[in-house]
Amino acid sequence: MSDELGLENEPSIAAELFGERIDLARSYTQNLAVRGEELGLIGPLELPRLWTRHIVNCVLVAPLLRPGLVGDIGSGAGLPGLVLAIARPDVDFVLIEPMERRVDWLQSETTRLELSNVTVHRSRSQDAPYAEGLSQITARAVTALSKLIPATEHLLQPGGEMVFMKGARIDEEIAAAAKAIRKARLLDVESLVLGEGITPEITRVFRARVD
Question: Is 207 helix (H, G, I), strand (E, B) or coil?
């Protein structure tokens, strides 16, 4: 089936990163490959790099999470929310997504994969009913930090963390978001690079803590 779809072969590092949860990751990746373009979740050019650019790219963030309630903002196809929920069954996730068809996908995959640590909530981040209730929040390819920070800071409990996946211009984004960072009173602001030397698609992360 993978060959027929043009899906990238699973890289060897995937089994190491997912451990005993690798079969769930394979099932999710396969279903995303089969249905993702049809549902508007991934583009037609993503299958030959689905594992490295998306699945492995997301799971690299898993060690940064801690037990508690983690919100994934604009969860879309479940990247990174479902991937992280598969990798970290000890962490509870709420996937916050405003678009109905994507919410339906997230709910169906949560049920199909029997992920008891996932709740799906249809909402924009600004309207999500989790004020100061989340220990961490994640997001990937949602919007610039200057907009993302003020749209999500209210969701975090005191001491909670933002763990946002960003692109190659992360340092420029941080500089451009200086005003938002000050207004939100963020502490321990840093940019991290994950996966160097183990995967061709490194993961860049903006991490900061609310006061």
Answer: strand
**Domains of the chain by residue range:** 60-210
Q: What is the dihedral of CA 52, 1, 105, 62, to 10 degrees?
A: -30
Pair 75, 95: CB distance under 8 Å: yes
Report the predicted TM-score, pTM, of the whole model to 2 decimal places. Answer: 0.95
CA dihedral over 190, 83, 110, 33, signed as positive or negative = positive
Give the 3-state secondary structure of residue 184. Answer: coil
Q: Which residues contact 100 (CB under 8 A, 6 or more apart)?
A: 122
Q: Which fold has domain 60-210?
A: Rossmann fold (3.40.50)
pLDDT digits (tens, 9 = 90+) for 115-170: 999 999 999 998 888 888 999 999 998 899 999 999 999 999 999 999 999 999 99
